[in-house]
Amino acid sequence: MGATSGAGKSFAANNIILNYLCSGEHINPLYHFDDIRDLLTADKYDPPLDLNGKFNASPDGAQVFVVDIGRSYQGLAEQFEDSQFIDFGVDATFSLNPFAFLVRKIYRR
């Protein structure tokens, strides 16, 4: 996705990711109902939160991986119980680069 700064790339991507995560057999895209009484009494604009203030969701639609510079998706990751946000800072002991550990050899003639 490419556009100028402030054009809404992160906003659009967040919505796409949320739709993938919440896809599946859901009445409400944020959580499952165990009983029809729960469906009748639920407020779809106020989804249930767990004790940590996260969505008490059981998304069954997709697994999403995002590589981001600027932490635009950290807030989205924090809303789900089973998500991970991994920071690739300067002190990281791992890399996504499959060639990171290759050593350049100089051959002299």
Overview of this protein structure:
It comes from Klebsiella pneumoniae. The protein has one domain (1-109). The chain is 22% helix and 0% strand. It is built from 3 helices and no strands. The model has no long low-confidence stretch (mean pLDDT 72).
Key attributes of the depicted protein:
109 residues; mainly alpha; 3 helices; 22% helix; 0% strand
What's the helix and strand layout?
Elements: H1 9-21, H2 36-41, H3 74-78
Summary, kept brief:
By secondary structure, this protein is mainly α. The protein has one domain.
Radius of gyration: 20 Å
Calculate the terminal CA-CA distance, rounded to whole Å.
47 Å
Flag low-confidence runs: none
Average pLDDT across residues? 72
Q: How does the helix and strand content classify structurally? A: mainly alpha
Keywords: Plasmid
Organism: Klebsiella pneumoniae
Protein name: IncF plasmid conjugative transfer pilus assembly protein TraC
